[in-house]
Design brief:
Structural class: alpha+beta
Distance between the termini: 45 Å
Oligomer: single chain
Number of helices: 19
């Protein structure tokens, strides 16, 4: 672990400075001279408690509504997957007096923690959910916990209150990831939502429960003991459980803190606390929201919203492959893929998304090779591309056998800086090369509102009736003006007929 030097001016002076020297960056945090100094974890607890709806800006409200709509859509689509249905079968073994809805299931309710669990799994079951920078999937760990919790509260929750709690959960994740430069890169050791996601869920749930500053700090401490999942389980059915567990365990942490369970009140301050997850951990306090120094991270850093159900890195290679295919097609006219002699992919180094011959849908969602070849073969990548029949096509396997992967030194493993290049060589000696630096849907090139709504509508209509789809769109579009969030839950239960779900084939 890199050496860290910390100097703290005594509390009696009502000011302090933390200087972290990790070789990567320095952070300096200074408290207001007229206020008592708070520790880092204390400052998070205070912020969770103190932030109010007046702090929500138009920009943050609009961005978070887009995130919520997209999360609901991919979650509804995800209720048709094998991993979701296995988790649902398991979760139905448990009962409680309090019950919460399962998205897209008109006749099934679960104990709230298990509703958060299965809905979170649905969101990530196809790797179709949003991605942030530094790298994590922020919404899937937070929204399922909040919607499960809303159904159990004694009083109605307004749309504005839901937006506030949601943004508190997103904000905590963003701040925790900024405590490490390591977090800015494509992960190598653990799946980030399993670490920061459970903390975001705990913070959001604490906000909605109205916990005190101390209780909110303890919720984070309790959640930290449920954090972590090895990256070895990426590209397996277990990966979606990382999101489901984050939603569930964060909600449980807040509920335990509410009844008086305590953890280490300095969990975020310590290298052997939350710092165990990062080699260059350098935490800093949250500015007092009353002092005017607080600003939402989402205000400046937007999320990426995916067009295809696969790891975010696949979007670059798909767009580059489609562009290279167009070059070849424009030259030869009638495209014959047997003319392709060799395919070179120039991508950032990352072991867990380098899968030469995927045999399952989850491996295919994490394979540069598969996604590039699917784009070349079909001129598109869709939900249907990851079916067993599509994965096992002889024509696709022939293309996969022609792929070589290169990792140029100038291509860093960062979703903010990476690129993908696809080079096609034909049996006539011709070469066609295309490069993607920023795909459509990335935070630098966001989906239009029209395309976002279209993505949601296609995904949701595989499960919900037309009234349900249109109702969710209307509620989320006006969420800051909705007086009772229960109306959202009613639309999420308006399912289409089983026969329509069976034969629905439309994909985004």
């Amino acid at each position: 672990m890199s050496a860290v030097s910390v100097r703290v001016v005594p509390r009696s002076q009502w000011t302090f400075v933390i200087v972290c020297s990790t070789g990567a960056f320095d952070q300096r945090v200074k408290s207001h001279p007229s206020r008592p100094t708070l520790g880092i974890t204390e400052s998070f607890g205070a912020a969770i408690h103190a932030l109010n709806t007046a702090r929500l800006t138009d920009g943050v409200i609009n961005r978070s509504k887009r995130m919520i709509l997209d999360t609901l859509g991919v979650g509804l689509l995800g209720t048709r997957t094998a991993v979701f249905n296995k988790a649902l079968t398991y979760s139905q073994l448990f009962t409680s007096e309090e019950r919460s809805s399962v998205w897209g299931k008109s006749d099934i309710t679960l104990p709230p923690n298990y509703a958060a669990f299965v809905n979170g799994i649905a969101v990530h079951s196809m790797d179709f959910d949003d991605t942030w920078h530094p790298a994590t999937h922020p919404s899937g760990a937070v929204l399922p916990a909040l919607l499960a919790l809303v159904e159990t509260l004694p009083s109605q929750t307004s749309g504005l209150d839901l937006l506030l709690a949601f943004n508190v959960g997103i904000e905590v994740q963003g701040r925790l990831m900024r405590f490490s430069r390591e977090a800015y890169n494509i992960p190598e050791r653990f799946h980030p939502p399993s670490v920061v996601g459970v903390m975001g869920s705990a913070a959001a749930s604490a906000k909605l429960l109205g916990l005190s500053p101390a209780q909110s700090s303890h919720a984070l401490a309790i959640a930290a003991s449920s954090a972590g999942a090895p990256l070895a389980n990426a590209a397996t059915q277990t990966k979606p459980l990382h999101i489901g567990n984050a939603a569930r365990r964060g909600l449980e942490a807040a509920q335990l803190a509410q009844i008086g369970l305590e953890g280490n009140p300095a969990i975020l301050d310590m290298d052997h606390g939350f710092g165990v997850y990062y080699k260059d951990y350098c935490p800093s306090a949250v500015a007092d929201s009353a002092s005017g120094g607080f600003k939402w991270i989402l205000e400046d850093q937007n999320v990426a919203i995916k067009r295809i159900p696969a790891h975010l890195g696949m979007h670059w290679v798909v767009d580059a492959a489609l562009a290279a295919r167009r070059q070849l097609e424009n030259t030869v006219g009638n495209l014959d893929l047997s003319q392709i002699q060799h395919i070179t992919l120039r991508v950032p180094p990352s072991k867990y998304i380098n899968c030469p011959l995927p045999s399952t849908e989850h491996q295919a969602r994490h394979s540069f090779q598969f996604n590039a070849c699917s784009a070349l073969l079909d001129n598109k990548v869709t939900v249907a591309s990851f079916s067993e029949a599509q994965i096992n096509r002889p024509a696709l396997k022939r293309l996969l056998s022609k792929v070589t992967v290169e990792t140029p030194e100038d291509n860093p493993p960062s979703f903010d800086k990476m690129y993908c290049e696809v080079q096609i060589e034909t049996d006539q000696g011709q070469t066609y090369t295309a490069r993607c630096d920023t795909f459509y849907g990335h935070w630098r090139k966001p989906l239009s509102h029209k395309d976002l709504v279209e993505k949601f509508s296609v995904n949701a209509s595989s499960v919900l009736c037309t009234k349900g789809v249109e109702g969710v769109i209307d509620v989320i579009g006006n969420l800051e003006r909705v007086s009772e969030c229960s109306v959202l839950g009613s639309y999420l239960r308006m399912t289409s007929s089983p026969q329509r779900q069976l034969y629905s084939r439309k994909v985004f």
